[in-house]
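Hello,

Following up on my earlier ticket. Below are the two sequence lines again, exactly as submitted.
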Amino acid sequence: MNGIHDMGGMQAMGPIQYEKNEPTFHAPWEGRSLALNLAAAAWRKWNIDAGRHQIELFAPADYLRLSYYEKWIRRLEELLVKTGLVTQAELESGKPAPGSPKATPPLTADKVPSMLRSGGPASRNVPGPSRFKVGQRVRARNINPTGHTRLPRYARGKTGTIHLDHGAYVFPDTNAHFLGEKPQHVYSVRFTTRELWGEQASPLDAVYVDMWDDYLELA
Amino acid sequence: MPPNHDHHDHQDVPSDPTLRVKALESLLVEKGLVDPAALDALIDTYEHKVGPRNGAQVVARAWVDPAYKERLLADATNAIAELGYGGRQGEHMVVVENTPHVHNLVVCTLCSCYPWSVLGLPPVWYKSAPYRSRAVIDPRGVLREFGLDLPPDTEVRVWDSTAELRYLVLPERPAGTEDLSEEQLAALVTRDAMVGVER
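Thanks for your patience. The regenerated structure is below:
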């Protein structure tokens, strides 16, 4: 979707605000927010793409106003209700519905190290050769899906060169909507900054964008 | 040197998120959906165990061991695993090398993708709108805000982390460090250099 999250190329966002010796968390609730998201995700009721998309669905003004971990906490509340782990009434009252059974958490403290060590690899085996070869000229398709996509607006319709074939990965555009993993090759595509931004850009520079096969066509 | 802003765009935390998170945690614990000890373990991991020191060791090893550097540039995920790092948000790694005429810069324009396993959790500025929006359209201007004014004949390569690949910049080994040990070299490597906002 063409949302506020797709920020590449915008110019009115102000100076970069750097904090020296920034702590990992600015307050204890930020750490709890991160940890609650990771622990609740262990129920596997949603995937990483659905989790990203939930934040993209925030109203643009909220997206800009909320801090990072405030977004995470709202996203978690919404996903919990959407997937039925928690009801809206429970969220509002802060209490489990009367008579509701008590579950057993899938992620316990002893499992945290192995969960983090194994992570969630998104690579998949896909038989057959890839459609594009390194060095080939390609164009990013001009698509404007209303759902989740990882094809940034600034690259659509632009022509670049296949720099690397990363192998096959889960396709976020379907996975975010629980429509299957549709694994396909992901390529690093090199776009010159002149191609992306015109004459004002440096003639030497380039932006490399990782792109799924479905985002590309031969140029 | 970073930009000279001592403040940051993270709101001073009002009591609201504190209470909201506390209420959600107590509901989820009471329902048996999360284990509070697991939350403590997760927080402890990212506060104390995983951070830019991991990435600095990877960089220092590449500086002293040419064969390792070759493996790192060819297959970063496995080369980084040799040092014991990997897993969540570092499952698929790519290392890009700075040279006298090439400078690399990493961004995630769509959200906040960052190589947790070697750098820890991303700083606020990396996740902020100003950095995400301008890194691709004006990388040289962004770098100037960090105090890095690159000559026109240096090629800038910006890596937008749009997929599940996570990027780490291999900075150039500083001149005059021939006598330093691997451990001393690792101490010189900064997080910002591994993101590419510093040389």
